[in-house]
Each structure stands twice: as structure tokens, then as C-alpha cells.
Fold:
Amino acid sequence: MTDNISRIRATLDTLLATPAFQRALDFLEQDAGRTVDELKTMAVIPGAPYKEHLQRSPMYKDRLEACGATGCRIDEAGNVTGRVTGTGSRPQILLEAHLDTVFPGETPLAVTEKQGFLYCPGISDDTASLACILSLLRAIRHAGLQPAGDIVLGGTVGEEGEGNSRGIRHLLEKTLPDVDAVISLECFGGEHVCLEAIGIRRCEYRFHAQGGHSWYRFGVPNPFHAMGRGIARIADIQVPQTPRTTFSVGIVSGGTSINTIPQLASMKIDMRSVDMAALNQLAGTVQTFIEQGVAEENARWPAAPADSVRLETLVIGSKPAGALPKDSLLARLTCEATVRAGFAVTPVPPSSTNQNIPLGMGIPAVVIGGGGICRNMHTLEESYSPKDAYRGAQRALLMLFALAGLDGVTEPLATPCPRHTLDASQS
Ligand SMILES: [Zn+2]
Structure:
């Protein structure tokens, strides 16, 4: 591992001592005003869930092209990618930010400025990162940097909420089968580093029955009562604090009227853990308790077997848990580059982002902040300060070229990465 650290430090020293690379770093600072202007323009283009491909994908493809990326395309899922082609094709490094926001299509989008902050829903998460990538591309072209491996830059769809990171899944499984390391830019400052991804399992349970009039049909199993029995059991589940594991029944719905035994009840549960085994165990316990609740309700009314409650289970969201080992090359490089960019390394608590997917496939992946100051994410008061944001971009540039190599100057630190497919419980 000492080997890794000395290689990383030597690579960063060489990059920083290379005039062309320094020109690119300086350019990022000079480009700050243009990047803010571009951010303001992009922030008002709607990125509503499942609609981000309509306007944002073509917009981002045009911008990548205008900044000098080659082979720009929109894939079947709506992801946008462009390349800075290396002298060799591997390693292949992906730098991405997400195109979608959490805000519905009818949300008014206008940028206002107050005390150095730009206000607009989605401006931090993750539009500022999309702007950062464009500035990086301009810097690479301005300084004429030629990577050894391929650098792929892009915007992904479906990161937020029920999007379940479907964009990066498709990107890594279909569009870019040879990616060797992934850097995701999120709405954090340039000092932030996230190495750990929270695994998520979301299930919907539907309880079907014949139901009927609450007076005349009294004596048949009731789907709400079955669901209640299950929820009562779930409420008492003991989960470990370490690894942190959580559960919550977030939505219950169904029923026809106050005087009807329902024909359908449904509940949605969100389960999370930083450990895949703990998450799988929790999901198994929840399933068992729900089945027990149904069995108990049906046994309560033995005279009506034809009216039994029937259970339907749907997995409506799933992301694998994963962690980039602290002593891995990418984790070490991220910390070293953060320090070289003038920051104190600030770890971000485990989160659920696009990082989950590559980690689940065995591809080294890290989430870093694109720079600036982000506030009130996922609220209508979301805001962003571009103050010194270029330093976050400088860190990303260091990481990109340390991993991909600078042709004729440094060898790539990344190596071709074998991968595995996500198993059924993760996809
Ligand atoms: Zn985000």
C-alpha cells in the first residue's frame, strides 16, 4: 500500500509540475464566470423525474459537443456521454453528474441572486456539477491535454428517488461496458469525499381479497387488518446500530369506503443499510412478518377460506450497498488530490447515489463535490454559491488525469477492472 501512496504522490507531483497541466488548472479559475453563466442557463431547463431526457439530455449533448467532446451521444436510457479520447483505450475513466432533479415538471424555475447565492430548485443538485464538467472539458481542450486512457464525461438520467439510479445502471451495463473507475460529482463542496454507499430495498405489499359490505359481509378476512398485523410485527424489529440499518413503512393506501371491507390494501416500505447482509436479513424478516400477518388474519376467519387475503410482493427499488476501501488506490488518490487542491478532506456520511451501482459491480467509484457551496438541497429554497468553485474542478481534473494518465508524462494509475453483473436482489 505504501507503493500506492508513493505512486499517487509522484503522479500528482509530476502533473502539477507540467506546464500544460498547470495551464488547464489556471484556466478553470479564469473560466469561473462563464461557468456560472452556463449554470444559470441550464438550471431553468426542467429535469423532472422521468422527463429529464426530454430537454436536458439534448441540451447537455449540444454543450458537451460545443466544449470539444468527441463521439457525443444520447443512449437508449437518455444518458449523455462524450469523450476525450486517449492514446490507448484503457483505462477508461467515467466522470458523471446526474441530469434529473427531484422537482416535478410544474415547479417554476427561475434563478435569483441574493448575497452571493444563486437560488433555483435543482441548481445545486446536480446542475452545478453538470456545469463543472463542461468547464473541465474546456480546460482540457484549452491546454491541449491528451490523456493516455479514455476519459468519458457525461450526464445520467434517473438518479433521484424512484429513478433508482437506472441511468448509470444502463450506462455501465450497456453503453460503457469497459469503464474502469467512476467519479460521480454531487452537490457538495470541493473538500467532500464519500466512500460508502447505503444499500436500499423498497417493497410494495398488496393485500387482495373479496371484501364487501361491512355489515352483510362481516366475517371475512380484511386486507387492512392483515396489513396492520404485519406492520405491528415490523414495528418491533430490532436492527443493528452497526452496521446502521433502518426501516420505515412510508405509504399505506387502499380501501373503498368507510362501510366496505376493502378489496385492496397496499403499503410501501423503505429499508436501508450500509451492509448488504444486514439489508437482506431485514428484507427477509419483513417478508416473513407480512406473511404471518396475512396467515393470522385468514386464520381469524376460518369459515371463509374463499375470501382469504392474498399477498402480492413487488420490489419497487433496490440499490446495492458498498464501500470503497479506505486504503484502495481511488480512495487514497481522492484524499491526496483533495489536499493538493488546498482542502482539508471532509468525509460525507454514507449516502445513496449513483456510486452504489459501480460499487455493486466491483468497479472502484467515489463521489466528490464539484465545488462551491450548496444549501437546502431538495427544497424550493435550494441555492448555490460559486465562490471558489473552480478549486473543486481542479481537484477533479487532478484525479481524472492521475487515473487516466497524461500521455508522455504520467502512466495511468487506474488499471483495467474486471466487473461482475448486479445479482437479482440488486437490480
Ligand atoms: Zn444528487
Remarks:
- The chain has a mean pLDDT of 95.
- Residues 2-197+321-426 form a domain with the Aminopeptidase fold (CATH 3.40.630.10).
- The pocket of zinc ion is lined by residues 98, 125-126, 159, 186-187 (CB under 6 Å).
